[in-house]
Specification:
The chain is an all-alpha fold and 108 residues long. It is 67% helix and 0% strand. The chain is elongated, with a radius of gyration of 17 Å. It starts with a helix and ends in a 5-residue tail after the last helix.
C-alpha cells in the first residue's frame, strides 16, 4: 500500500470532525446554518464514520512491524513514532469536536 492510501483514513477522520468548525470559521452562520439542523438526525452516523476511520487508522499504525515490507515508511521507527503522535493528536481533536455539543454550553 502506498503512502497516500495509508494516510487516507486519518485524513478522512480529521475532515469529518473538523468540517462543522470550518463552516463557522468561514462565517457561514445565520439563517443558512439553520438549514444544517436537517443533518442532526444523521449525527450518530457521522460520529460512527469518524470512529471507524480512526479505528482503521489505529489498526494500520499499531500493526506489528513484521507485517511491513523492508524499506517502506512503516518499517522506519522514526516514521512510526511520528505517525503515532499525529494519530493521537488527531484523535484527541476529533474527540473534542465530536463531543463539543455536550460541554460547550458550560463555557457560554
Amino acid at each position: 500500500m502506498n503512502q497516500k492510501t495509508s494516510n487516507l483514513p486519518m485524513i478522512g477522520g480529521i475532515l469529518a470532525a473538523v468540517g462543522p468548525l470550518v463552516l463557522l470559521l468561514l462565517g457561514i452562520s445565520g439563517s443558512w446554518i439553520g438549514n444544517l439542523t436537517a443533518f442532526e438526525p444523521y449525527r450518530p452516523v457521522f460520529v460512527l464514520f469518524v470512529v471507524l476511520l480512526f479505528s482503521y487508522s489505529g489498526w494500520k499504525i499499531y500493526r506489528p512491524v513484521e507485517e511491513c515490507k523492508p524499506d517502506t515508511a512503516c518499517a522506519v521507527p522514526a516514521t512510526q513514532q511520528r505517525r503515532k503522535v499525529i494519530f493521537w493528536l488527531s484523535a484527541l481533536t476529533a474527540l473534542i469536536l465530536v463531543t463539543s455539543n455536550y460541554w460547550i454550553l458550560w463555557f457560554a
